Structure formats: structure tokens, C-alpha cells
Amino acid sequence: MVPQGVDERVFMDDIRKGPFQSGEARGRWRLVSVAWPYAVIAVSAAPRPNSPGEFYLRFDLSNYPQSPPTARPWDIELDAPLADGKRPHGSSRVPKAFRTDWKSGIALYIPCDREAIDGHDAWRTQHPSMIWNPRDGITLYLRIVHELLTSSDYTGVHSS
After folding, report:
1. DSSP 86
2. Tens digit of pLDDT for each residue in 77-116?
3. Given 41, 71, 112, 148, the catalytic residue
4. Each residue of 32-67: b (16+ CB within 10 Å) or e?
5. Residue 120 is among the residues annotated as catalytic for this protein
6. Which H or E run includes 97?
7. What is the pTM of this model?
8. Which of 17, 35, 150, 156 has the fewest CB atoms lying closer than 10 Å?
């Protein structure tokens, strides 16, 4: 057995706790794989024509939970970043969160993401409930993404 670091043990403990387990039981998300410091988690989406029922996110969980995670949409079949034309789309919030014109799409543009919060200090007062808090763990990030993917703003995959 490979010894786990503290950050990996904390993450594994978090996904065994009620908030993660509750979301999984409700079909909101599911753990697909862990190859530390990366984890792939599928997040369910509202049914839309010609769109998948879930999207995969590949999380970098380095220094979890003290440092916020960062995640990018992931193509599980290719084990590679999700192509731009297969990303979630919508009329307002969804395309902003899943944008590809910012940092080449390497992370979601949401306040709890490690890459996104950098340089966006105003988000701390504008979106306090979406700021990373180690006590909330990975479920904070998953709740935000699930809410986006099941909102009326979500229209399916981006049409190229």
C-alpha cells in the first residue's frame, strides 16, 4: 500500500462524510477516480438535447483543504481536457464559469477555484458563500457546479 499524505487523507475523509455522500446518493455527483493529487468527479446536468447527463471535472487537490482546489472539464474517454465544443453552455452564468478565453480554459471561472480567485479580491465580498472554506471541503465546489448545470441558464453543450 502506498502511504497517503495528510492532504489526501483529509480529502478521502471528506468524501466519506455526509455532505459528499448525500450529494452522491441524490445523483448530483460521483467520485470516478483518484490518482493523487488528482481526482475526477462527475457532476450531473439537467437533461438537454444532444448533451450528456453529466460532466467530468478533473480536480487538482494539491495542499487540500488549505488551498482551494482547481478543476477543469475533463474528457473521461480520452483522459484529456474536454474539447471547447463539448463544454457546458448557457445564456449567462454557465458560459462565464466554463469559459475558454481565460487562462486557456484550465480552470472553472468560479470564486471557489484556486486559479480563478487569484486577482479577484472583490469576489470575497461579492460572493462570500462561494469562497473556498476548508471546513466545507470539496462539496462547496461541487454544489456550485451542480447548481450551474441544473439551472435554467444551462442550455447544453456549446454549439460550435
Report:
1. G
2. 999 999 999 999 999 999 999 999 999 999 999 999 999 9
3. 112
4. eebeebebbbbbbbbebeebeebbbbbbbbeebbee
5. no
6. helix 93-97
7. 0.94
8. 35
